[in-house]
């Protein structure tokens, strides 16, 4: 049994004890200590509680409610029922996901990386300044004959120092961008890379041989095969550097995507409200305040099951 499965098993055992009635003070304290000992513990218990409500047990097992109520009074039967619910909800996967939400495991071997809720500003050997957004990672190689950064995850802003016209290249899985000076911002998405040429003209090349030039003040995207049509930059794309996400008639889905790297739990969004539009500045370093602001401005409900499980849905 893996560690994630053991955590779910522990959550089930605690739920069984709590369902028997009032716990003695010592046991209640032990339960709270267990939840506080590891964020995955609190997450697993919150997920299990939510899933017990979501997966209506009588209908899931096909038993008549009166029969099921009698059998669930037996602890062993109840344990089996809870394990069934945990399997249906994929809670062991949820525990593993939470570990990654705290520390992005895949980025730990990168030259520079940030965790959830962190930003990092670093001066490279050539004098260029690179700022990593939360949950971002890069490798870099700076020498007298080569200036190269590889964006592995997340989002960066690079203030490129002039160095005798030596190009500064930034690579992603989709292609590369280069400039000799100025400021560029890149964000790595699953299917594309977003680029903003804030104060620099940039040369783009996709993995499969497409090329283009992006003028200063423009933005675009590229994947391995093509480059999107350039558009005027809005001017607030780099507001995350100062700790804010600035929306200008953006979708709720876009705002939530910007908040996720700053939360150590799961932030779920109902697709039914994902395309609601909003404008405003939302604090990245206080995502609870940002979520409250969204709930005040839009017809949505923010349901905080626990600090590690928050869901957003339409207002009833």
UniProtKB/TrEMBL annotation:
Residue ranges annotated for the FecR protein domain, each copy included: 111-184
InterPro entries: FecR, FecR_N, Ferrdict_sens_TM
Domain FecR N-terminal: 9-49
Gene name of the record: fecR
Gene Ontology molecular-function annotations: sigma factor antagonist activity
Superkingdom as given in the UniProt entry: Bacteria
Protein name, entry field: Fe2+-dicitrate sensor, membrane component protein
């Amino acid at each position: 049994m893996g560690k994630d499965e053991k955590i779910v098993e522990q959550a089930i055992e605690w739920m069984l004890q709590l369902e028997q009635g009032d716990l003695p003070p010592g046991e209640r304290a032990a339960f709270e200590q267990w939840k506080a000992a590891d964020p995955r513990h609190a997450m697993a218990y919150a997920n299990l509680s939510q899933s017990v409500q979501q997966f209506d047990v009588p209908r899931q097992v096909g038993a008549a409610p009166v029969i099921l109520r009698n059998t669930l009074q037996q602890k062993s039967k109840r344990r089996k029922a809870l394990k069934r619910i945990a399997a249906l909800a994929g809670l062991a996967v949820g525990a593993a996901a939470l570990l990654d939400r705290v520390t992005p495991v895949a980025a730990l071997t990168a030259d520079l990386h940030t965790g959830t809720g962190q930003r990092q500003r670093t001066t490279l050997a050539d004098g260029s300044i690179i700022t990593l957004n939360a949950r971002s990672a890069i490798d870099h190689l700076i020498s007298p004959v080569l200036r190269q950064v590889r964006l592995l995850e997340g989002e960066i802003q690079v203030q490129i120092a002039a160095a005798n016209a030596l190009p500064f290249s930034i690579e992603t899985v989709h292609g590369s961008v280069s400039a000799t000076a100025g400021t560029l911002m890149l964000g790595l998405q699953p299917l594309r890379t977003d680029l903003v040429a804030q104060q620099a003209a940039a040369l783009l090349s996709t993995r499969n041989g497409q090329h283009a030039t992006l003028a200063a003040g423009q933005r675009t995207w590229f994947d391995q095969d093509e480059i999107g049509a350039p558009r005027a930059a809005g001017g607030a794309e780099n507001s995350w550097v100062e700790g804010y996400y600035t929306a200008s008639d953006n979708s709720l889905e876009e705002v939530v995507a910007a908040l996720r790297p700053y939360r150590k739990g799961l932030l779920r969004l109902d697709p039914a409200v994902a395309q609601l539009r909003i404008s405003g500045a939302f604090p990245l370093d206080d995502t609870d305040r940002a979520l409250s602001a969204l709930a005040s401005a839009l017809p949505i409900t923010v349901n905080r099951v626990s600090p590690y499980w928050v869901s957003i849905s339409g207002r009833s």
